[in-house]
What does this fold into?
Amino acid sequence: MAKNTICIWYDKDAEAAARFYAETFPDSHVTAVHRAPGDYPSGKEGDVLTVEFTVAGVACLGLNGGPTYTHTEAFSFQIATEDQDETDRYWNAIVGNGGQESACGWCKDRWGISWQITPRILTEAIAAGGDEAKRAFAAMMEMGKIDVAAIEAARRG
It folds into this structure.
C-alpha cells in the first residue's frame, strides 16, 4: 500500500467501482480486496470491507462504510485528455454506465464520485491568461462535455 492513499467511502460497491475504473482508465488496476473479519455496523463478516486500487496512477482505497456519508463535488478526479476522442471515451464510459452529466466538463459516476474530464487544450488556454483565457473560459461555461474544437476556436478569437 502506498504511503499516501486517497480513501473513498462507498455505501457497498467499492469493488464494483474499482473494477469499473480499472477497465476504463489507463494505469488503473485493482490491487487487493479485503473482507471483513467480523460483523460491523453496515456489513457482515466476509463482506468486502476495503478495496485497494489505482486510478490513472493514483493510489486509492475504497471503503464499504454504508450509507452514512455521501459524495459531493468537493472531491473529484480530474482526468487530462489529449483530444476529443479521449474526452468522449471517458465521458461516455462514466455517463453511459449509470452516471450523470454536469457542467464545464464535470460528470458523476453511478456511485456519486465526481469526475472532471478536461482536455489539455482547455487547461493550456486558462494558463495562457489574458483574452485567450477569458474566451476559452467563457466557452467552457456554456458546455457540459468539453468540445475541443470550440475551445480551440475560442482561443483563436
